[in-house]
Amino acid sequence: MFRAVTTRSWSNWQFAVRYHAYPGPRLSPRDFTPLELRARGYQKSTHGRADVPPLAFAFDIDGVLLRGPNTIPAARRALAMLEGANPTGRKIPYILLTNGGGTSEQARCQKLTDQLGFKIDLHQFVQSHTILKSVVHRYTDSPVLVLGGRNDDVRKVAEGYGFKQAYTTLDVLAWNPAVWPFHDLTPSERESTKTVDFSKTPISAIFVFHDPRNWALDIQIICDVILSRGIIGAPQGTRLSNYGRRPPDLIFCNPDVLWGSDFPRPRLGQGAFRIAFQAVYKTLTGSEYYDVQYGKPTEATYRFVKQVLKDRFKDLYGDAAVRLPNIYMVGDNPESDIAGANAAGWSSVLVHTGVYDPQQGPPAHEPTHQARDVEEAVKWAIERELSKRY
Ligand SMILES: [Mg+2]
């Protein structure tokens, strides 16, 4: 027998979860949905295994859970539902997925826990460069360049991932200031550098972890590394001296051309830096350089997140989590959150608390549903999945 999850049953359950007791008048089993009965032990699962939630969530952060430094109040209520205040009475797996980065996952999870009022576990958080953990084994002992962030912040992140020889463009400038004579290292930049002889250090890959602070310096050094096949200052082109050294890999972690800061107009992001580099490189060589792009909405990132969600589901439900249920992406940006989710075959909910303004016409990528805020989005998705099941 199907009965929709009504507002009454939602509020009862939220109350019941809080007080561990049914709050209303005496009711007979006929007053409950099959799901509610099962959760109260009246009825066993029809498929003979512990019941697992029929859905999981991935949330964008900025414009969905936070607005600038402030927490959106609906976010706390949405997370409370996922932590058990829902008709199943069980935890619904979720992760947070952002194109931001520049600091360690540990530091960001601690900050998010403080802001949201719920513990955000390391396994529930994916930022733009987290995916690099899955490729680090290819470069563990190889010298690589890591770009972006202040001083050597991203070097510390890279080392935390397992890169043993991660260098910054500031290291290169400290080695030889003539590489880019238009920037003098500040005292704090100089303090962050490592002493390396780059004429004897073949760079095998360049990872743009976060938005570069000095585009000119970084574009110059990327060109140097690629054109001389890893040895900065070595002869360039396809000369015999270059044979035997493979072209360095170039990896970007965030395709956003624009992003929102406290400034009234959007700011240029890492995607703009990539365009600038490729334009210079094409002018020099006649063609763009092959690169790898991660971050929302790329397929690679959504595939990675699916695995993270699978692991989270297993953590919560062990062997009962035989297969991942339907995934809902909740985001405020049609071009990244919604486009990526749609391409991955997930359901998507576009919220109105961030960059998308419904007054400006339909979104560029059509979501499965639109919601005023994240609380409404979560509630809609849970009701949709429960109504499918019973
Ligand atoms: Mg956003």
Automatic annotation (TrEMBL):
Question: Could you tell me which InterPro entries the record lists for this protein?
Answer: CDP-alcohol_PTase-I, HAD-like_sf, HAD-SF_hydro_IIA, HAD-SF_hydro_IIA_CECR5, HAD_sf
* Cellular component terms (Gene Ontology): mitochondrion
What is this protein identified as?
HAD-superfamily subfamily IIA hydrolase
Source organism phylogeny: Eukaryota, Fungi, Dikarya, Basidiomycota, Agaricomycotina
What Gene Ontology biological process does one annotation of this record name?
Answer: glycerophospholipid biosynthetic process
Could you tell me which SUPFAM superfamilies the record lists for this protein?
HAD-like
